[in-house]
Amino acid sequence: MIPMLLYAQDEVGHVSDELIEEIARRVGVTPLQVNEVLTYYSMLHRKPLGKYHVQICTNISCLLWDADKLWEQACHKLGIGHKEATGDGQISLEEVECIGACSWAPAVQVNYDFHHFVTSEKLDQLLDGLRKKQ
User: Fold this and answer.
1) CA pair distance 108, 117, nearest whole angstrom
2) Which of 38, 66, 67, 126 would be a feasible disulfide site paired with 106, CB 3.0-4.6 Å?
3) At 121, which helix (H) or strand (E)?
4) Range of the domain at 9
5) Do residues 8 and 62 both lie within one domain?
6) Phi then psi dihedrals of residue 93, to 5 deg
7) What DSSP string describes 50-103?
8) pTM of the prediction?
9) Within a domain: residue 47?
10) What is the pLDDT of residues 94-125, one digit of tens each?
11) What gap in Å lies between CA 6 and CA 1, rounded to an integer?
12) Cα 130 to chain center, whole Å?
């Protein structure tokens, strides 16, 4: 079920009610059971994400390297908060607990691309680069 949810999310941009119904049918469970799985995992989303989904880790390893300041910087620069998207729908932002990159903290993930040892300057360059891709 989880691979189906991830694939569907990548194709559509979020997991809609229609996708929940279809996955439930294919797996042989109720839509409620699919929704229970969906709401358990933070990497699955019910509302549309931006074309570029920026995740900033603020777990302990990243936090020790000022990830909280990076989070605040991104919120201010983009004018959005947790699980929100810019008005044009191009960039969404999410504060996450762990992306498995503790040895390279602080870490940021954009879609499936990891960015390690992120500084304030690197974050500005990354966000500016995403805006230019629009």
Assistant:
1) 9
2) 67
3) helix 120-133
4) 2-40
5) no
6) -135, 140
7) PSEEEEEE-SHHHHTTTHHHHHHHHHHHHT--TTEE-TTSSEEEEEES--S-GG
8) 0.83
9) no
10) 999 888 899 999 999 999 899 999 999 999 99
11) 9
12) 15
